[in-house]
# Entry
Amino acid sequence: MPEEPGVAELFKALADPTRRVILDELVLRDEQTLFELCTRLVSIHGMSSSRQAVSQHLDVLEAAGLVRVERKGRYKFHFLDTAPLARIAERWTSPHHPEPKELS
Amino acid sequence: MKIYISSLMVTDQNKARDFYTEILGFVVKHDIPLGEHSWLTLVSPGNEDGPELGLEPAEHPAVKPFRDALMEDGIPATSFAVEDVYAEYERLLALGVVFTQKPTEMGPVTVATFDDTCGNLIQISSYAG
# Structure
């Protein structure tokens, strides 16, 4: 069965530990600036990612549909979107073809 | 050598004087007319002989793109100390101040970031204990 478009981007996005931490922090507080995410990674997780690296991670998360960027006035905020994760659950926990009923 | 002044670029000195005194509560130390602008510095209430904050006109063409880029990413231009970030957040919010970062605990320090309406983001911070 061919994979749906975007599936590769989704798994690529989730494969990186820094990107998973970014998602964790967006669960704790949605709508964060790049500055807030960077300070959280450094001060809470002891990660030493540069602002540029975090920005690139956010681009990957955005391409996978896991992060949504919204401009409000002169600031740019990042929001979490968990909708793409449903594909993972559907694929392995809700089989498309139910098992055939046993013959009585 | 000791620090006596630190400067911020502001888009409008008159507007900045109002915001920094009436909303934030700083006190004007010098306001000396200098051509079309002023040599404008502020001090902290109760520490009038302490370090000054200079509010300088953001005239140079390089200032706007630099500050816009910082603004977009939520990066503060400078940081002020407060007793209690949560209380200050509520006080400023009631005065219509726009925050880009709500109070956030970062280990021993709690921070928040707001817009000074003159082209800068400002962080406030308080230390626990």
About this structure: Chain A has five helices and two strands. The longest strand of chain A covers residues 67-72. The first helix of chain A runs from residue 7 to 15. The domain at 7-89 of chain A is CATH 1.10.10.10 (Arc Repressor Mutant, subunit A).
